[in-house]
Amino acid sequence: MPRDSQPTKERILASAERLFADNGFDGVSMRAIAADAKAQLALIHYHFGTKLNVYRAIWATRYTSEVANRREAGFAALNFNEPRPKIVRSLVELYLLPILKMTETESLKSFVAIGARESTDPKERERGVLKEFLDDTARRFLDCFARALPELSSADIAWGYQAMLGASVMHIADRDRITRISNGAAKAGDGRAASEPILEFCIGGWLALAEKRRRQKHPRKAVTVSSKRESPRRRKATASGR
Length: 242
Fold this sequence. Notes:
By secondary structure, the protein is an all-alpha fold. It has 14 helices and no strands. Helices cover 74% and strands 0% of the residues.
């Protein structure tokens, strides 16, 4: 359907989504949205009231349908009786795959870019968008990783989650650098090619940290060199008191 034939409210949201993705929240004015959407400024105020409400409406539409609903189904399907590597894989895939798949869909790339911008914007706390739409799900992931990997402290789990977030945000935000430094071997924005390496590194990281903490809590008793080299005759003599 041509843009001009879209209902006004849809045109406003579509224009705002593109502009926010390219310029960030502070770089977009209500007038710019009106001009791009070919809509009267008064209509934006009528439908949404404020620029922040326009922004929140984009999150409510995109995040709920493309990420939240899929993750909800994934949480319901988790089985913590499965072997540890399998449950960790399920959790990492549940977190990363909805995001990475969105980067492969042209119509969703703008929202993915908005999410990456918002995650690194110093003013995101003032807007409260991540708190409203993401924080509850983030805490749910933390609880699930704590259940799957009880050796890890709350801080370990928080940093592990942050590492996954960083990997996904960097992939989304990178427009050219990975292409440049890899001499074209890896293509910026190629979600399909990036999925496996990012997933495997994150899965391996969680399991490696859990194993390290397990060894720290239950170190093996050291075996001295002298006892290892002691001959059977010497051990027999020692045991008999000779």
